[in-house]
């Protein structure tokens, strides 16, 4: 429910009050003596879905943007006429659950902080995320998402497009670009300082750190996170629900992969940064695409009737453009996913081949202890480089002599030339 307060321009009082009477809207009028351009201030409660159509109709009667219109939350309204309004406008569908276009625009603008605050919080968030990645700490990475101020620009571009506010759209796009650059740069600088000052162990292989490696080789599931974040973000602000947790979800799609890209750059492995950078870009585009589609589906349109066709055309072009770019990135991520699937399949096959060889009666005294696949550094399409097979045997026994057999059988499971190493561990007598 909302309480609307608006100033009545001189000469429009009777017309506006007649409009409210025709719609059977309860109102209170107070005379305005501080400004000769306005004769009164009128207060009236409305169900949330009624705010936009009523304000649009009043604007046609002479309430323009120069007038003061304030829309605030109303906790409780007790009135039979108000209940009739609720029955008229609250239909239980998407459009009746959303806030007005005017409130949506104000909400989108309020979610974006000043540039100084935005830049500072983005840098801090990226630094914290980088520390979390290097510590291999999911808790610290989640903490970095909480402080990231990304939800405003991420959703503002969609809102600006749909309601024909090009200033909001341009500002949001600019903020998003600056945010990505700042996050990757801050992460790279911080990671370089950590590395050069030996805060982390010298020779650390970032590919062995789980929190980093999973973002260096992203897969198609990452698209679901970004699209879900975009839809949830728009639904949250369009229905007046708190956006705090949704902001964390959007940050989860952007800050950790940006930090991973910065770490890869600091470690002198630019090829390793390709996958995480692509993940950042596709997530940004997916959030914007999902936001655009959700807003249009929710029924938001520009205020000016004459600009609706032009806005619809522009939104359609942006949706098609974003979808095309996201599709290209999806193919790229699909290639990474396929490579990861092939690697996982090879690891299982190598394990099975080692077990089959050792099942021979000639090797009854030996047992397979471990099979480890070492991957190459051809990011983001990594593949197997070496297979280390650890075998245990009786005290004093020699290595069972199955290296050539295992190497032949394991290499049959892949198109690449894989080195197979055998490590023999003799059991100690007690």
TrEMBL record:
InterPro entries per the UniProt record, alphabetical: DUF389
Keyword Membrane: yes
Pfam family, one: DUF389
Regions that span the bilayer: 115-135, 141-161, 173-194, 220-238, 245-267, 273-298, 319-341
Keywords: Membrane, Transmembrane, Transmembrane helix
Domain of life of the source: Archaea
Protein name: DUF389 family protein
Natural source organism: Natrialba magadii (strain ATCC 43099 / DSM 3394 / CCM 3739 / CIP 104546 / IAM 13178 / JCM 8861 / NBRC 102185 / NCIMB 2190 / MS3)
């Amino acid at each position: 429910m909302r309480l609307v307060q608006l100033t009545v321009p001189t000469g429009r009082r009777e017309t506006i009050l007649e409009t409210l009477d025709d719609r059977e809207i309860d109102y209170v009028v107070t005379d305005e003596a501080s400004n000769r351009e306005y004769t009164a201030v009128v207060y009236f409660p409305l169900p949330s879905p009624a705010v936009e159509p009523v304000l649009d109709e009043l604007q046609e009667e002479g309430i323009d943007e120069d007038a003061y219109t304030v829309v605030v939350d109303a906790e409780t309204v007790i009135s039979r006429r108000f209940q009739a309004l609720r029955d008229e406008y609250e239909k239980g569908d998407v459009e009746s659950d959303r806030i007005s276009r005017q409130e949506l625009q104000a909400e989108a603008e309020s979610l974006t902080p000043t540039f100084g605050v935005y830049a500072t919080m983005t840098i801090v968030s990226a630094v914290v995320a980088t520390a979390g990645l290097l510590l291999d700490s999911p808790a610290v990475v989640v903490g970095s998402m909480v402080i990231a101020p990304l939800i405003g620009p991420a959703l503002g571009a969609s809102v600006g497009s749909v309601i024909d506010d090009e200033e909001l759209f341009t500002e949001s796009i600019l903020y998003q670009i600056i945010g990505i650059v700042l996050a990757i740069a801050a992460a790279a600088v911080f990671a370089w300082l950590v590395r050069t000052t030996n805060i982390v162990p010298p020779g650390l292989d970032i590919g062995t750190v789980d929190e980093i490696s999973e973002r260096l080789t992203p897969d198609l599931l990452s698209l679901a996170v970004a699209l879900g974040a975009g839809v949830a973000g728009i639904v949250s602000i369009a229905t007046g629900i708190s956006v705090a947790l949704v902001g964390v979800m959007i940050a989860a799609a952007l800050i950790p992969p940006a930090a991973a890209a910065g770490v890869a750059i600091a470690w002198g492995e630019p090829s390793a940064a390709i996958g995480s950078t692509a993940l950042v870009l596709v997530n940004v585009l997916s959030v914007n695409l999902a936001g655009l589609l959700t807003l249009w589906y929710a029924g938001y349109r520009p205020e000016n009737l004459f600009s609706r066709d032009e806005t619809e055309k522009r939104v359609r072009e942006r949706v098609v453009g974003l979808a095309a770019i996201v599709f290209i990135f999806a193919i790229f991520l699909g290639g990474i996913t396929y490579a990861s699937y092939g690697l996982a399949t090879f690891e299982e096959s190598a394990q099975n081949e080692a077990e089959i060889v050792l099942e021979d009666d000639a090797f009854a005294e030996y047992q397979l202890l471990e099979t480890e696949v070492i991957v190459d550094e051809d990011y983001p399409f990594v593949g197997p480089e070496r297979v280390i097979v650890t075998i245990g045997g009786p005290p004093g026994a020699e290595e069972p002599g199955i290296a050539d057999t295992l190497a032949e059988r394991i290499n049959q499971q892949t198109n690449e030339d894989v080195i197979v190493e055998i490590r023999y561990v003799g059991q100690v007598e007690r």
